[in-house]
Design goal:
Keywords: Amino-acid transport, ATP-binding, Cell membrane, Membrane, Nucleotide-binding, Translocase, Transport. This protein is α/β, with parallel strands linked by helices. It has twelve helices and 15 strands. Helix 5 packs parallel to helix 6. The mean pLDDT is 91.
Length: 337
């Protein structure tokens, strides 16, 4: 996707066009789990509709599996769409069809032979762990089971690209974890590229390899998930990260910490792995400084650790100052004043 713009006619006569996607470029490589995150109205769902050809870009280029789709007629677009699976927030299952019939539907539309359909449906239901629910109807299933049926249906035609639009937003935390683990298997075992649309940073942290942050129809930051989490460069990105990562305490939070804990309040930030945490503790102990962790935490993203730990330090004031100067050589140190 390169320099893509999507605008709509003005809502009032004589008004300006409404720009939903503003000069967006995204490069999703084969095998990626690419997260697109933004608050409501950021333009992320419009972006999905452009990728699967349900809407046409006003300008720019969109290439899906080597095919430029922005100028394709609907008949040609249907062929491209056959290689794209889609799962939705509200599942979009046919309540009048059994689980097996729901999974079979895209294969029936594609005109596949009955024996092939039966074999593929059985294979997909086994993959998502619902072989015993083949004859059930959607209203007999839990939310998590419905989404697994949705995933099985999306994968039935063996697509190379899966679009997941807020696929876990209607689920409780435990069920969300199960669905994310299943999507991880889809990516690892089946080699399916996933574009993950969400407003939940925890979903990005759990599953995505790369992320783009959208705000006002634009991509304001992009990169590896670890880099964006550990050191966000944009205010919108920082707001998302703060929903799942405790950073440096605010002035109000510092006041609360001072009321509860004696000593100097100091935050140590780690972005290069967990070894530096141990070194900080060793340096403090060697200087005879007592310390207590009072805020923050360490996060792990695909085996790489980062985070912020705020400590209350007690001991000789000059010894604390000297220890902080030593620690600042290998870790970021922020003292509350």
């Amino acid at each position: 996707m390169t320099d893509v713009v999507k605008s709509y006619p003005p809502s009032e006569k004589g008004g300006a066009p409404v720009v939903a996607i503003d000069n967006v470029s995204v490069d999703v490589e084969r095998g990626d789990v690419y997260g697109i995150i933004g608050y409501s109205g950021a333009g992320k769902s419009t972006l999905v509709r452009l990728v699967n050809g349900l809407e046409k870009a006003t300008s720019g280029s969109i290439v899906v599996n080597g095919t430029e789709i922005t100028s394709l007629k609907e008949r040609s677009m249907r062929a491209v769409r056959g290689d794209i699976g889609m799962i939705f927030q509200q599942f979009n299952l046919f309540n009048s069809k059994t689980v097996a019939k729901n999974v079979a539907y895209p294969l029936e539309v594609a005109g596949r032979p009955a024996a092939e359909i039966a074999a593929r449906v059985a294979e997909m239901l086994a993959f998502v762990g619902l072989s015993d629910k083949a004859k059930n109807y959607p209203d007999q299933l839990s939310g998590g089971q419905k989404q697994r049926v949705g995933i099985a249906r999306a994968l039935a035609t063996s697509p190379s690209l899966l679009l997941a639009d807020e696929a876990t937003s209607a689920l409780d935390p435990e069920t969300t974890s199960e669905v994310l683990a299943l999507l991880d298997r889809v990516n690892r075992e089946l080699g399916v590229t996933i574009i993950l649309i969400t407003h939940e940073m925890d979903v990005i942290r759990s599953l995505a390899t790369k992320v783009a942050v959208m705000d006002g129809g634009q991509i304001v930051e992009r990169g590896d998930v670890f880099d964006v989490f550990a050191h966000p460069q944009n205010a919108a990105s920082a707001r998302f990260v703060s929903t799942v990562v405790q950073g440096v305490p605010s002035p109000v939070e510092v006041q609360t910490l001072r009321a509860r804990h004696d000593g100097r309040i100091v935050t140590f930030s780690f972005r290069d792995g967990s070894d530096s945490q141990a070194q900080v503790f060793l340096d403090l102990a060697a200087a005879g400084i007592r310390f207590e962790i009072v805020y923050g935490g360490i996060n792990d993203i695909r085996g790489r650790a980062f985070g912020h730990l705020t400590l209350a330090l007690q001991g000789d004031d000059s010894a604390i100052t000297a220890a902080l100067a030593k620690i600042a050589a290998h870790s970021e140190v922020t003292e509350a004043h």
